[in-house]
Amino acid sequence: MGVDNAALLDLIATTLTDLPKDAFEVMWDSQAYEFCRIYEKDRRKIDGGTSIERNVVLDETGAAHYRRLFDTDTPTVENIQRKINVPWCQLGTNYSWDVLEILRNKNSAKGYIDLMEGRRMERLWGLSELIESRGWLTPTSATDTLYPYGVPYYLNMLNGGVTTAGFSGQTIRYQDGSTGTNCAGIDAAVEAKWRNYADVYVNVDNAMLKKLRRAFLLTRFRAPLTVKSPGNDERGNVRIYVEADRAVELMDLADKRDDNSGPKDLAGKSLIDVEGTTYFNRRPIVYVPQLDGVTYSPIYVVDWSKLVPFVQDGYWMEEGTPMIDRLQHTTVTVYLDGSHNNLCLNRRTAGFVLHTAIPA
Fold first, then answer.
1. Beta carbons of 315 and 270 less than 8 angstroms apart
2. DSSP assignment, residue 155?
3. Burial code of 274-283, b = ≥16 C-beta within 10 A, e = fewer?
């Protein structure tokens, strides 16, 4: 009796939908998958368009002025809105089985489920690793539209030789070694309001904490009471991201500043739970393995309500139906696809970066 492909595909689809919880260990590469978490909890959907666009007003035109009695006015109208634009990026994965693999396991419920679950999990793991790794990188070059715009694309370090803190982050350092100042369609070298806050630090100590305090203070903007803000000026989900060495040093600094730390736990109170118990300004300090070994040891502070992950509605983690290709007639494949990118709505409030000094 032959194999009915339609019945076989239906069996695979049903099993994938009803897979139980994982019953095996996995050697994960990342400790937290922070970018994947942000995409799960804070992403926004767009239902169409060839790219992701938003408008931004960078400056007022200086039309306000004091006047004397009977002074004359010359009204003017300017186009004050600029457009920020990022391209869609497509990603995907797939997992396959040979018909004979399925037939040899279909009479064993456990073996069949393990076959489905293990192969699917491995490819979803790889997809998560891809999202996570690219979230902490810039694209390959200024013309690269294959990869998404990661955190360093929007939160730029200071230029070489510059050690003065301020809204001076304007140079994007791409993966091929090139640089540029055009960020999402606006040139930060020309538009001073389209730059992020940045500062340099030497050691993890009280001097660095003072720099963090100042950065939090200066990147907090509110609309005047006389103006109804068209955007959301409240801080959203703000988190601090560091490499392992900086994370441990900050934990150690927290222990030293804690007068109530008892001797019962040698790790110290801040290390009893290493997942977010060290805070600064009530914001958790999160270790991101993708930042290990990054030159100049950046410390990124990100407000995820201003640096927003966008996904295309109806095309994010879309898992297709099992299919058979005519060139591999005994192979069953399931494809999983998505379209996304990251858009910074306001570079002055989306966060900031502290890093060690960059030589001139």
1. no
2. S
3. eeeebebeeb
| Residues 6+ positions from 305 with CB-CB distance below 8 Å | 42, 232, 234, 235, 236, 237
DSSP secondary structure letter of residue 120: H
The per-residue pLDDT for 21 is 52
Short-list 180, 200, 162, 298, CA closest to 242: 298
- Residues 196, 172: contact at Cβ < 8 Å? no
Residues contacting residue 313 through CB under 8 Å, at least 6 positions apart: 45, 46, 47, 48
State pLDDT tens for residues 28-55. Answer: 778 888 888 888 888 888 877 889 888 8
pLDDT exceeds cutoff 50 at 328: yes
pLDDT of 235 > 50? The answer is: yes
Domain ranges of the chain: 5-19+31-48+82-224+233-355
Q: Is the pLDDT of residue 353 over 90?
A: yes
Q: Give the list of residues 6+ apart from residue 220 with CB closer than 8 angstroms, or none.
A: 235, 349
> Is 347 or 19 the better-scoring residue by pLDDT?
347
The angle that helices 5-17 and 109-135 make with each other, rounded to 10 degrees, is 60
Q: Give the Cα separation of 12 and 4 in Å (integer).
A: 13
Longest dimension (CA), the chain: 100
